[in-house]
Amino acid sequence: MTAPLTPSARALYRAGLIGALVTFACAVAFQFLSAAHADVHLQPTDVPLSRAAFLEPLDDSADAVLLWMAFDALFVVAYLTTFAAARALAVSRLLGTLSLGAMITAGALDMVENAVLAVHAAQASVAEPASGVPMTALYVIAQLKTAAAATGVAFLALALPARTWLLRAAIVAAGAFVLVSVVGVARPELAPLEALPILLLMGLLASVFGGRLRASGRASVTVAEAV
Questions:
Q1: CA 20 to 30 Å from 196, out of 1, 13, 72, 207?
Q2: CA 141 – CA 34 distance, rounded (Å)
Q3: CA–CA dist 102, 74 (Å, integer)
């Protein structure tokens, strides 16, 4: 019989469940924003673009970019929360810690990238666009963020136990994300495909966290009835 979770473990799994669901919701929102503003690319690594082709849509759709940045700020907080909780699922404490550390690095780079774009969009929204986004710096930040995220997800895949079909599926989804991220460096037009394994991984982790919370709740009821 499953033992009831401790209060700290229950709080951690609840945070992981909420984080995974919010990450999933933000990933879905990004798809709608991408469809509504197909000319806007928030990372110069998405597709090869000239400086003008990258900057002009940012100036013309400043309000959409700011909305995007708002979702992305929530996205960063949510996926960091999810990976902090996922560390508790790892069978290797070292791999779980390395995974979380890599994701914290990715989150920090994501926030820097967001700050650059948000400042540019905020100025453009009042008809005073900045002199220009530092394209080379954004390329470097985007590549480092992708590498850090792929590393963090890879370590999580290696650290998760394969005891249930949900965990095995999560390992496969994590591996798919790493593969798409690596291929996307050589073929930037494939980078948007990262959304699918992200959605799958977050949905599966939410199911794992939710399942453990439900099992703990049933165990608590059983213990209370036995007393």
A1: 13
A2: 21
A3: 19
Please give the model's pTM, rounded to 2 decimal places: 0.89
How far apart CA 123 and CA 128 sit, in angstroms, is: 5
Token reading at 193? 């495909």
* Contact in structure between 149 and 71 (CB atoms under 8 Å): no
- Between the CA of residue 177 and those of 100, 110, 172, what are the distances in Å? 16, 17, 9
- Residues contacting residue 202 through CB under 8 Å, at least 6 positions apart: 20, 21, 23, 24, 27, 79, 82
Tens-digit pLDDT profile for the chain (227 aa)? Answer: 467 788 899 999 999 999 999 999 999 999 898 888 777 777 655 666 667 777 777 777 788 888 888 999 999 999 999 999 999 999 999 999 999 999 999 999 999 999 888 887 888 777 665 566 677 788 888 889 999 999 999 999 999 999 999 999 999 999 999 999 988 888 877 777 888 999 999 999 999 999 999 988 776 656 555 65
